Amino acid sequence: MTTKSPAPPLRVEPFDYEARPVRVVFGPGRITEVPAEADRLGLHRIMVIADSRAPGAAVLLEALGHRISLRWHEIAQHVPIELAERAVEAAAANDVDGLISLGGGSATGLAKAIALDTGLPILAVPTTYAGSELTPVYGMTGAHRKRTGTDERVRPAVVVYDPELTFGLPPEVTGPSAFNAMAHCFAALWSPRRDPLTSALAVDAVRSATESLPVLMGDPSNVAARSGLQYAAFLAGTALGRTGTGLQHKICHELGGRLGLSHADTHAVVLPHIVALNAPAGADWAPRLHPFLGPDPAVGLWELARGSGLPTDLASLGASSRTLREVAEEVAGTPNPVPVDTPALEAVLRRAMNGEAPR
Ligand SMILES: NC(=O)c1ccc[n+]([C@@H]2O[C@H](COP(=O)([O-])OP(=O)(O)OC[C@H]3O[C@@H](n4cnc5c(N)ncnc54)[C@H](O)[C@@H]3O)[C@@H](O)[C@H]2O)c1
Ligand SMILES: O=C(O)CCC(=O)CC(=O)O
């Protein structure tokens, strides 16, 4: 591991600040408070979208009792459009007045797709570190292309975080999902829409994620580390929900939509390389991360990924050279602190493809 050093004093630039209302309930065991939160929202005919691999569904369904109008268990990454359409039809047929999602970003994403069409309020119970529950961003996939957008109708009204629900999250989901959260942090740190609060949230999220992840790799049920990683996801999602996404996320959406790759795995592989690309423009953010990631944050991330047993090459995820070229052509114009043309971006993606160190 590279040597870590203290951060220099923070320089505060002029900024605009605006926050959107969301109620967040955080703590072990607090899934029991979901019925009271549903009552607070005035929900009587709820559609529960529950990932059956995540714990808590049975408890939640029993606790909600008569408030439930429809149970939905079919969930898929990147939200296929035909799945979203069927879920919207079912919500209308059952006259539901609100949505409760329990699961990772895929369960939240389906609730968002329904809310986009219907305007129904969402109460989210996240069980990974994707952070979707705090953003107005949605995504849907059809004909191997992912469409993303931003709409306040999809931002959940209430989020209930219960770290106990993540105790059984397997290491191959925990590690990449932590990197998905850290990808939000970097997007927020270098966004033109950043402000001192989004940057502070992002820095503390990286601190908490980099402290918690190594603990969880050896002790998956460590309560403090599970809480620390979910806290990081909360901060990271809040920051991303204010600043929006950029090149890193666009690359992952293009790869995920075309190839059906695991979203979090793709973020984990690509992130160190995009951090390296943007390092020359990192005077404002890189020194703040030195205490947690060492003097070169890109290398620090790459070493953390390797040390945690995460995938570090796109080839093993199923990407091909042809796809890399298509993705580079598609996303090269995306605004980024260090502008990048198609050949340069293809070279970056090729390094990610081969599992090379970021540079
Ligand atoms: N809109 C946004 O702001 C945003 C942000 C991040 C991710 N996303 C989207 O979310 C999706 C990915 O979310 P994800 O990475 O959380 O994956 P996911 O929701 O598909 O979950 C990953 C796997 O873990 C399982 N799982 C979830 N919680 C579990 C638990 N507690 N215990 C055991 N198994 C559990 C799931 O069944 C699945 O097999 C993608 O479609 C991505 O685009 C959206
Ligand atoms: O909801 C989506 O599918 C698009 C937004 C998203 O996935 C954010 C991310 O890349 O983590």
Structure commentary:
The chain has 359 residues and is α/β, with parallel strands linked by helices. The protein has two domains: 23-166, Rossmann fold; 171-354, Dehydroquinate synthase-like - alpha domain (Dehydroquinate synthase-like, alpha domain), CATH 1.20.1090. It contains 13 helices and eight strands. The protein has helices at residues 34-41, 57-64, 81-93, 105-118, 171-189, 196-218, 223-243, 247-259, 263-278, 286-293, 297-307, 321-331, 342-354; strands at residues 23-26, 46-50, 68-72, 98-103, 122-126, 137-142, 145-150, 158-161. Strands 1-8-5-4-2-3 form a six-stranded parallel beta sheet, with helices on both faces. The longest helix is centred in the middle third of the chain and has 23 residues, at 196-218. The protein starts with 22 loop residues before the first strand and ends in a 5-residue tail after the last helix. The model has no long low-confidence stretch (mean pLDDT 96). Residues 51, 53-54, 77-78, 103-107, 109, 127-128, 130-132, 135, 137-139, 165-166, 168-169, 173, 177, 180, 263-264 line the site of nicotinamide-adenine-dinucleotide (NAD). Keywords: NAD, Oxidoreductase. Its EC number is 1.3.1.32. Residues 178-352 form the Fe-containing alcohol dehydrogenase-like C-terminal domain.
